[in-house]
Specification:
four-stranded mixed sheet; 2 domains; 8 strands; 8 helices
Length: about 270
């Protein structure tokens, strides 16, 4: 099974890097159809053309092929006789050469490049355990442009978290290659709020926003930042909130920014 994991990792990365999920493309198409500003509409069309060309030539659709992040869903009854992290890392090394991927993983202080996108806790693997004996790997490469805009804040419980989110998006959106997808983590502890925000992005999958999410998304789009920060009706294409109970004296809020190229691909092994 180790070889299956390696091969699935390569396939998932190649699919994620060279195309976008259909629901993401549809949201871009819908935004282009309703966009009133000609320049904004043109940028949205450029995005769709970019994806089409990348898919035709099987090349990465963005020069920033991101850090290798994976969501692994594994059945609790499944027993593996190999190191799952190292098997996925082998797949990343192969994909770096095959796709190819830009070597982005560097030491945080020396900035020494690993040259293969692995090393020092890379790839980043988010483990989710489920019932049964299933195993799937989802590639979720994350570029620096949007990730650098992400943030966590420990608010006062009396603060309005949505006002904080709106002001944060107002200040940061233009630098994150909008239109955006936003994962919001509310509550928990300092680090749990960030994990909630990442999970919110991972689990978005075209689900319709609920009433509260849609109201926040509408407020963000009324900011007028628009595609590439040059103005327009579409600052964000999707938004999801995940919540956890938090301490009575705190209100953690995390915002995980994702650019318009919301790359993701899943491979089912078992």
């Amino acid at each position: 099974m180790r070889e299956q994991v390696v091969e699935a990792t390569v396939r998932a990365l190649q699919k994620a890097e060279t195309g976008l999920p259909e629901w993401v493309l549809q949201r871009i198409r819908d935004a282009a159809a309703r966009e009133r500003l000609p320049l904004a509409r043109q940028h949205l069309q450029f995005m769709l053309e970019n994806v089409a060309i990348a898919g035709q030539d099987r090349l990465p659709l963005c020069q920033d092929t991101g850090l290798p992040i994976f969501q692994v869903r594994m059945g609790r009854e499944l027993k593996l006789d190999f190191d799952l992290h190292e098997a996925i890392a082998d797949g990343v090394r192969m994909a770096t050469k095959l796709v190819p991927l830009r070597p982005n993983a560097v030491h945080p202080q020396s900035r020494c490049n690993s040259q293969d996108n692995t090393g020092l806790r890379m790839p980043d693997i988010i483990m989710d355990y489920v019932a049964g004996r299933s195993l799937s790997i989802t590639a979720f490469p994350k570029g620096a442009g949007s990730e650098n805009m992400s943030l966590i804040a420990m608010l006062n419980p009396a603060d309005d978290p949505f006002d904080f989110i709106i002001e944060s998006v107002r200040e940061r959106a233009a630098n994150a290659c909008p239109p955006l997808f936003l994962g919001i983590g509310l509550g928990g502890s300092f680090d749990l709020s960030a994990r909630l925000a990442k999970h919110a992005l991972l689990d978005m999958d075209g689900k319709q926003e609920d009433e509260e999410e849609q109201a926040l998304l509408d407020r963000i789009n009324r900011l007028g930042i628009g595609p590439m920060g040059l103005g327009g009706d579409t600052t964000a294409l999707g938004l999801r909130i995940e919540r956890a109970y938090c301490h009575t004296a705190s209100l953690p809020v995390a915002i995980n920014f994702q650019c318009w190229a919301n790359r993701k691909a899943k491979e089912v092994i078992l």
